[in-house]
Amino acid sequence: MIPFSVLDLSPITAGGTAAQSLANSLDLARHTERLGYHRYWIAEHHGIPGIASAATAVVIGHVAAGTQTIRVGAGGIMLPNHSPLVIAEQFGTLDALFPGRIDLGLGRAPGSDQATARALRRNLAADENQFPRDVVELMAYFAGTPVTHGGQAVHAIPGEGAQIPVWILGSSLFGATLAAALGLPFSFASHFAPAQMQEAIHIYRTQFRPSAHLAKPYVMLGFSVFAADTDAQGRFLASSMQQMILNLRRGRPTTLQPPVDDFLGTLAPAERAMLEESLSCSAIGSPDTVRAAIDAFIARTGADELIITCQIFDHAARVHSYEIAAAVREAMG
């Protein structure tokens, strides 16, 4: 059976705090490690009241320090917000502290609104080739390949010589093309932007060039699971994530809200259709319902790995959802 992994945004719930959110992330990481999940990734987002993972490398260190064997990484670092040298140093430091356990997924979106992106980057006018160049520069720091700025060699210490797997993340065809060209593993954000998933997978697999990093294509797909003991309970739990997506689309981001009975039934048809499309790569319901959805998704995509996200208001219910998903994986053999 293919590996299952975890994607965590350290959700801040209504009435909760970032401190509670980060403590919950560590608790979830410990649970999922015991359940056999392969990796635990933290996502970089900024300026969103319901997400506590803005300082992504710091949260990765927090999770890695409190676990033993699970791989921990970024899903991902939004590289345009940072210089490649800074990320090479941060992740080189993480690799020195937790050798052989750190992953680095790279994306090119801001992970924020335009005003926050401007505050992060100062300059939003980078050309479309800047992200590929920055990825290559970052990998050069890890490899110890000479990187020059102003005619002088620059080194990432720590970072030089670090054996950190680099992934390309994407929700469009751009990331698929770049990952294929560089011979890197590819993770597609089908858990919230599924529209171009199948085309992106096709492009990545058909255009892939083997590299020193990877001999053949490797695709990890985002997948949402809202699992509970019954279908009705699963639909109830999923309403917190549905509210978060809808509030983001309305331009009014909030903390993760308590679940609501029949939330979809309260919406206008256009908003309901938007949510159903956004969460079309999801499993919502009882263990049998979740297994059927996961089976169908893997058969449709040929995914090499699933990275499961689970934005549930109640922490105990969130842990239970991951327990159900792990049991489903075991049953699938």
Write the layout of secondary structure elements.
Blueprint: E1 4-8, H1 18-34, E2 39-42, H2 56-65, E3 71-78, H3 84-97, E4 102-107, H4 114-121, H5 130-143, E5 147-149, E6 152-154, E7 166-170, H6 173-182, E8 186-188, H7 197-207, E9 219-227, H8 231-249, H9 269-278, E10 282-285, H10 287-301, E11 305-309, H11 315-332
Parallel strand pairs: 1-2, 1-11, 2-3, 3-4, 4-7, 7-8, 8-9, 9-10, 9-11
Antiparallel strand pairs: 5-6
Q: Which key features would you list for this structure?
A:
44% helix; alpha/beta; 333 residues; two-stranded antiparallel sheet; globular; TIM Barrel
Question: Can you describe what's shown?
Answer:
By secondary structure, this protein is of the alpha/beta class. It has 2 domains: 1-164, Alpha-Beta Barrel (TIM Barrel); 219-333, no CATH class. It has 11 helices and 11 strands. It has an 8-stranded parallel beta barrel with strand order 1-2-3-4-7-8-9-11, surrounded by 7 helices. The protein has a two-stranded antiparallel ribbon with strand order 5-6. Helix 1 runs parallel beside helix 11 (315-332). The termini are close together.
Q: Output the helix-strand order.
A: EHEHEHEHHEEEHEHEHHEHEH
Number of helices: 11
CATH class of the largest domain: Alpha Beta
Cα-atom Rg, whole angstroms? 19 Å
Low-confidence segments, given as residue ranges, are: none
**Terminal Cα span:** 6 Å
- Strand element count: 11
Largest sheet: 8 strands, parallel, barrel
Mean pLDDT: 94
Counting helices, strands and paired strands, the structural category is alpha/beta
CATH fold call of the largest domain: TIM Barrel
